[in-house]
Amino acid sequence: MKNIMRILGTVFFLLPFFGLAQKIDADQLLKDIAYLASDELEGRKPVSEGSLKARALFTERFKSLGLTSQFRDYTQYFDFRNRRDGQLYEKAANIVGFVPGEITENLIVIMAHYDHLGRQGDKIFNGADDNASGAAAVLAFAQYFSENRPQHSMMFVALDAEEMGHQGAKALVEDFPFPIEQVILNINMDMISRNDDNELYAAGTYHYPHLKPIISRVAGGRTPILRFGHDEPEMGRDDWTLASDHAQFHLKGIPFIYFGVEDHEDYHKETDTFENIHPEFYINAANLILDIIISLDKELLQ
Question: Which of 73, 76, 105, 282 has the most other CB atoms within 10 Å of its CB?
Fold first, then answer.
């Protein structure tokens, strides 16, 4: 914890020098990822004590921001059986917040999974990049749109049990609180806080090319460098189309954009900690993704 506080103190001192056109609260973003990736939450394995603490962060923040929800106490419970070990997980939970649109009831679903691998023996798999980074960004975007009402209605979702086969996303799609046809776009974030080459990927435009011109206009000349790709079938294992929770929306024919980075040396290791994220990259990436969402919200009106 002392190392985390030291890093946060250094980053907060440097924030004014980053030269960012910030729409998000960068201080809060870093505090949220630090908390979600802390040893206190023990890797956020579904239905663990750490997972319950993560849920509480989302429910309390959504409530404080004035978000509504189609689920009691913002919580969509579901049960599933882990295919790897046959264990039944009861009352796993997605946390769902909602902001009504100014113009249309059609929906943009913004989401990230908050679970990770948990504790294994004496090792804690904190999952800072995977995926405390995306989960904390959901909170930042919920704050922005609670203060700046979007054109489309927006659903903000912290998904559980992605690491066990996209179980939270499956539950959300199967028990969606609106006609699924109202969803015009799914935004998924999974690993957005570090990259040695200053690159962030937006996967999905191979399948939904109408989104690419909008995204390109926003991303031009920005940092991190936005790359398209990782979404073509011939890429094999490098095709991310079905690699994370957005897959469940894509299988329903719903357009998606998946923001993420390529795997790094700490992927799915106990070294994926807050100390190893790249704070400036992360803040810039979150601001870029938010600006893309703002433009898509305005330009996709039907």
Answer: 282
CB of 146 closer than 8 Å to CB of 155: no
Q: Which of 17, 259, 269 is nearest to 137 (CA)?
A: 259
- Run of H or E residues at 198: none
Delineate the domains of the chain, giving CATH numbers in brackets: 2-299 (3.40.630.10)
pLDDT per residue over 54-79, tens digit each? 999 999 999 999 999 999 999 999 99
Q: Checking phi first, is residue 208 left (phi over 0); if not, alpha (psi -120 to 50) or beta?
A: beta
User: Within 10 Å of residue 127's Cβ, how many Cβ atoms?
Assistant: 31
Given a cut of 80, whether residue 5 has pLDDT beyond it is: no
Phi and psi for 301 in degrees, rounded to 5? Answer: -60, 135
Residue pair 155/109 in contact by the 8 Å Cβ criterion: yes
Question: What's the predicted TM-score (pTM) here?
Answer: 0.94
Helix residue spans in the chain (DSSP H): 2-14, 26-36, 49-64, 133-147, 167-174, 212-219, 247-250, 279-299
